[in-house]
Amino acid sequence: MAEITITEADQRRTSARILDVREDFEVEEGMIPGALHIPMGQLQARLSELDPAVPVIAVCRSGNRSARVADALNGAGFTADTMAGGMIAWTRAGLPAT
User: Fold this and answer.
1) pTM, entire model
2) Residues 82-97: pLDDT tens digits?
3) CA-to-CA distance for 82 and 58, rounded, in angstroms?
């Protein structure tokens, strides 16, 4: 699993699937436009919602949970990275959120 910057994640938004693994109450504060929301605890049950042919960028609040999710996805045959700093860094940088 690679840790990528918010700038790299922003540049790759059109070619990768952004996967937001935060809880529902966290997502209410804003999400990266076009991201798929699957809380970390539901990932195994909802894995079929991801296309193994499309790279995944896992996102959480600060980068800790998303790193674990990216590792799990890579172990399941996906290509997944984690976004360093999570949504805290994304919003501080003034990047778009819905």
Assistant:
1) 0.96
2) 999 999 999 999 999 9
3) 5
**What's the rounded Cα separation, in Å, for the pair 36 and 33?**
9
Which positions are annotated as active-site residues? 60
With H, G, I as helix, E, B as strand and everything else as coil, classify residue 60.
coil
Pairing of strands 56-59, 2-4: unpaired
Phi, psi of 81 (to 5 degrees): -125, 165
DSSP string, 2-56: EEE-HHHHHHHTTTSEEEE-S-HHHHTT---TT-EE--GGGTGGGGGGS-TTS-E
Contacts of 43 (CB under 8 A, 6+ apart): 21, 69, 72
